[in-house]
Write a structure and sequence with these properties.
Layout lengths: L2 E5 L2 E5 L2 H8 L4 H5 L7 H12 L5 H4 L9 H8 L3 H4 L7 H8 L6 H7 L5 H8 L4 H8 L6 E2 L3 E2 L6 E4 L8 H13 L6 E4 L6 H18 L5 E3 L3 H9 L7 E4 L4 H6 L4 H14 L9 E5 L3 H4 L8 H14 L4 E5 L11 H17 L4 E4 L10 H14 L3 E5 L3 E2 L4 E2 L1 E2 H11 L5 H9 L13 H9 L8
Helix pairs in contact: 1-3, 5-17, 7-9, 9-17, 9-18, 10-18, 10-19, 13-15, 17-18, 18-19
Length: 464
């Protein structure tokens, strides 16, 4: 079906939904690299005019990726809840945008709608929104999950403590972990990206982190972000696995590039839940995504990168994870060229995920060859906090010495907590208070190192 719009005396035709969605997207280098982007800003606006008039039912009738060839498409189509979709089934994309922005459309209404929306619908409506619109809608939505503490509660901000080390040195990781705990970071997860896939080395890290947690009765969860099949093997060997991690994408072929299928994810979810390690909940998976993943694997099926990213959230939603985050600027300037594109992508990803009922966080980050700087990251971290992001990632000094990219620092989390009055998960906040590390106003004490030092002992107790 061809979609048309006339603008300034010129008629524009878009041969199908793929082409229309790609041309309506905000400018980004990945779509230009793939030959999918609008020719110029005028064609982009014409595409948005045409997209606004598209009935939502068109996305159900014409899958962007063939049903027969792609298990992600089959997941989207087969799990679509038509009764949840009914309140908006008569709407166009533009009508959905206007409805979402209405004062009377609240969080519970959007939670009920989530099973009735497909990723393509959320991507389409996001393309008609300004940044402030993406924030206005997303902040209405609360997606709660729990393991040893509760994430996603309104008015709170979780944080991942990421103490990576280029050689997986257990003492170096322990020191970085202590540094983050001293600043009240780590309630979402203490998550290490290992430099090696050696199962014995990964088990050493899991044992160390879990030993600290148990010794000091910290209500946190841990994760070593190795491949899901490695984690399954570690669980079989009795390792103290809390969360199972995996990178995911929006097509079967892209997920195959990560070495996973939906069946493997189901196996991992079943295995992690069977351990019963959660105390206040049983959400046991942790997914990461990022715009450009499918394109970089040549597995995008001619679909623009933001829409493909939204399809990854359908995979996440199916497994009820504790955490999901977009590593928004990590893949590089070939996909998000500069700070403006990174900021826009972060807000889009958060909006689409929350609208689909996914517990979304973000690694506010960029690679050193991207046309971005820390001021751009300051802008995005603050915008996402206003938008109600579930959690953000922080590394020592905002410089990940193992992965070689720039993220947020532990200090940035302190800034967001105090500026926006966003405490951590309630169980973790209560632990900090028991250690006398918080002031009555909820800020970390200047004396927090001494306070925690009295708990940890003279050597820190982090490694043998």
């Amino acid at each position: 079906m061809t979609y048309r719009a006339a603008l300034d005396g010129t008629s524009y035709a878009f041969t199908d939904l793929k082409r229309l969605l790609a041309c309506a997207s905000s400018a980004r280098s990945g779509d230009q690299l793939a030959g999918l982007a609008a020719a110029d800003d005028v064609e982009r606006i014409a595409a948005r005019y045409a997209l606004a008039d598209v009935p939502l039912t068109d996305f159900l009738d014409a899958p962007l990726v063939p049903y027969e060839a792609d298990e992600v498409t089959r997941l989207i189509q087969d799990t679509h809840d038509r009764s949840a979709f009914a309140p908006v089934a008569h709407m166009t994309v533009g009508g959905l945008r206007d409805w979402l922005l209405g004062y009377d459309v609240d969080g519970p209404t959007l939670a009920a709608l989530a099973p009735g929306l497909t990723p393509e619908m959320t991507a389409a409506v996001s393309k008609l929104m300004r940044n402030q619109d993406l924030i206005t809608v997303a902040r209405k939505i609360e997606v709660k999950t729990a393991f040893r503490n509760t994430q996603g509660l309104r008015g709170r901000l979780g944080s991942r403590l990421q103490p990576n080390h280029p050689t997986d040195d257990v003492r170096g990781i322990a020191v970085s972990m202590l540094d983050g705990l001293l600043m009240g970071v780590g309630d979402a997860v203490i998550g290490v990206n290992p430099a090696s896939d050696s199962l014995p080395d990964i088990k050493v890290l899991l044992d160390m982190i879990d030993g600290v947690r148990e010794r000091y009765d910290m209500p946190v969860q841990s994760c070593v972000l190795t491949h899901v099949t490695n984690t399954i093997r570690l669980m079989e060997r009795g390792a103290p696995v809390d969360l199972v991690f995996q990178s995911i994408a929006g097509s079967q072929a892209a997920n195959a590039g990560f070495g996973v299928t939906l069946d493997i994810l189901r196996e991992a979810d079943d295995a992690a839940r069977s351990l019963g390690r959660g105390t206040v909940g049983s959400n046991a998976l942790y997914f990461e995504t990022g715009q450009g993943a499918a394109l970089s694997a040549n597995a995008h099926h001619g679909v623009d990168q933001q829409t493909m990213e939204a399809r990854a959230y359908a995979v996440a939603r199916a497994f009820r994870p504790l955490l999901v985050n977009t590593v928004v600027g990590f893949i590089g300037p070939e996909y998000l060229y500069d700070g403006k594109q990174v900021i826009r992508a972060g807000l889009e990803d958060h909006f689409c995920a929350k609208l689909l009922g996914v517990p979304m966080g973000c690694d506010v980050c960029y690679t050193n060859h991207t046309m971005a700087d820390q001021d751009d990251m300051d802008d995005l971290m603050m915008l996402l906090t206003v938008a109600g992001v579930n959690f953000l990632i922080a590394v020592p000094g905002s410089d990940d010495v193992m992965l070689g990219y720039q993220s947020l620092s532990y200090h940035d989390i302190l800034t967001l907590r105090s500026t926006f009055d966003r405490p951590p998960a309630p169980e973790f906040e209560a632990w900090l208070r028991r250690q006398d590390m918080l002031t009555t106003e909820g800020r970390m004490r200047v004396s927090a190192p001494q306070q925690l030092g009295r708990v940890l002992g003279p050597t820190g107790g982090l490694v043998a």
